[in-house]
Design goal:
By secondary structure, the protein is mainly β. It contains no helices and eleven strands. The strands form two sheets. Strands 2, 4, 5, 6, 9, 10 and 11 form a seven-stranded mixed sheet that branches. A hairpin with a 5-residue loop joins strand 5 and strand 6.
């Protein structure tokens, strides 16, 4: 079992930055890819990024490549998502998630979810 606790969302202007955090507790194994999904109103939940616990490789959705960076602090048991150059299309509830690498961007492959944190990009 894993417990994932999201934090760090908020309101930011276009072009601004936010850093999301996900505190990970419980039985962590190399099996999972830990990362974030997001869901905007009226849209399906989509994979944003994940961090492979096995080889520390990373994955990003095309829409966020070059703007978002995922990282891990082992000592703090925390995953981070640094989001730069935000735009209104990034507005969504962001959910920390543990999934399999093969389905890292498919919500049907998620085993555990965080509670979500709202990110709003607006002027």
């Amino acid at each position: 079992q894993l417990q994932l606790t999201d934090s760090g969302g908020g309101l930011v202007q276009p072009g601004g930055s936010l850093r999301l955090s996900c505190l990970v507790s419980g039985e962590t194994t190399d099996y999972y890819c830990l990362g974030w999904f997001r869901q905007a109103p009226g849209r399906e939940r989509e994979g944003v990024s994940c961090f492979d616990m096995d080889d520390w490789s990373t994955r990003y959705a095309d829409s966020v490549k070059g703007r978002f960076t995922i990282s891990r602090d082992v000592a703090k048991s925390t995953l981070y998502l640094q989001m730069n150059d935000l735009n209104p299309e990034d507005t969504a509830v962001y959910y920390c998630a543990a999934s399999t690498l093969a389905k890292w961007d498919d919500y049907t492959g998620v085993y555990f979810w965080g509670q979500g944190t709202q990110v709003t990009v607006s002027s």
